[in-house]
UniProtKB/TrEMBL annotation:
Keywords: Toxin-antitoxin system. It holds the Pfam family ParD_antitoxin. This is Antitoxin ParD1/3/4. The keyword Ribosomal protein does not apply. Gene3D superfamilies: Antitoxin ParD1-like. The keyword ATP-binding does not apply.
Amino acid sequence: MTVKASVSISDQQEAFARRLVDEGRYSSLSAVVQRGLELLREETELREEERAALRTLVEHRRQGSFLSEDESHERIEAMIAAKKAQYGL
């Protein structure tokens, strides 16, 4: 089902859309707008999925154990020493 809607676009947007139609990349201005909305929907859904995955990761990490400041410092120093040794420093 399609719905007719009136939208306002800038002169630049209209010129760009018309150029796409004139080049044969889209059949009509409506098709250009529909594709733009579809891309926006896909982008929005992807960002929502990424946020959900990040929230899950953060929650998982929050439930795990944490290192003390001293333990963290010791691990960092050990990583630095290993890298220096790797490069012969």
